[in-house]
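Example 3.2
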Amino acid sequence: MEKTLRDLAIAVDGRVTGDPDTPITGISGIREARPGDITFVANRRYAHLLTDCRASAVVVSEDLPNCSLPSIIVRNPDTAFAAIVDAFAPPAPVIEKGIHPTAVIAASAKVGRDASIGAYCVVEEGAVIGDAAVIYPQVYVGHFASVGAGSKLYPQVVIRERCIIGLNCIIHSGTVIGSDGFGFSTVSGVHQKIPQIGFVEVEDEVEIGANVAVDRARFGRTRIGKGTKIDNLVQIAHNVEIGPNCLIVAQAGIAGSTRIGRNVILAGQSGVDGHKTVGDNVVVGAKAGVTRDLPSNLFVSGFPAQDHESELKLQATIRKLPAIIRHVKALEERLSEIEKKTTDPGEGR
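Structure, written as C-alpha cells:
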C-alpha cells in the first residue's frame, strides 16, 4: 500500500511541510524507521531523535521546533498517528457470526443476535451473551454471568458465575473475572476459607489486558468503572471500587475494599493498601506504595507514597548519603586527633 503525505494529512486534518507528494509505504517507531516509513514525535524530549531518523516523513505537534523531514503538523500526534496506523493495518480477521459446532451452550443460556461464539467455548446455565458480542475459542462464561452487546472476549478468558461485563468491553487472553477474593480466617493455626459470594461488575467500554485477575466481592460487588483501561498482569482484589476513566498500568495491585476515584492513574508496579480511598485525578508513580487515603488531584510517588516533589527531594538527599558519610567520618577523625592533642599531657614538650 502506498499513500502520499498529502493523503495522510487530509485524513488526520493536518498541515504538510515539505513535499506533499512524498510517498509513504509503511509506519514505524522513530528509531526503527526506514525510507518509505512515516513515524511520529509526540513529546519534545524525543525531538533530538529526528536528527538521525531515516523515515520519509514524521507526524509532529504544532509546538515542535522546525523539522528537516517532510512533516504533518497536528494538534495531537498520538491520535493522528493512530489513525495513520489504522490506514496501513492489515485487514481485520473475519469473525463468523453464530455458534461453532464444538461450543457447549446450556439450554437456558441466551445468545444475542449476530453474536459469535468460537470453538470449544462453554456458556453455562442462565448466562447471557449480548448482541454482536464476539467470544473467541476456549472462553468460559459461568452460570448466570452476562456479556454485554458488542463486547469481545479473547481466547481463554474466564468469566465466573454471576459476573457482569458491560457494553463494548474488550478482555484479553488469560484474564479471570470473578475468581474468589483472598479471604481466610486463621483459627487455631488453621487458615479457614471465608466464603466469597459477591460478584464483579465491569461497566461499559472497559478494556482489560492479558492475565489480569479481578476478584469477586466477599459480598456485594467489585466494580470497574466505565471507560477504565487496565494493562496486563494487574491484580484487583475483592470489593474494590474503581471509578470511571482510570488507567491501571502493568503489575499494579489494589488490595481489598479500596475505593479509587475517577481519572486516576496507577503507574506500573504501584500498589494500594486495603480499605483506602484514592481521590479523583490522582497519579500514583511507578513502584509507589499507597498506605493512606489520598485526596484528589495529587501526584504521589515512593514508598510510602508522598507528594512527588517531596519524594524527588528525598531521593536526591539519599543519593548524597555516601558522600555525607565519608565527610562525617573525616570530621570524626580530625576531631579525634584534636582531642588527642588537647588531652595528651606530653604534647608540646
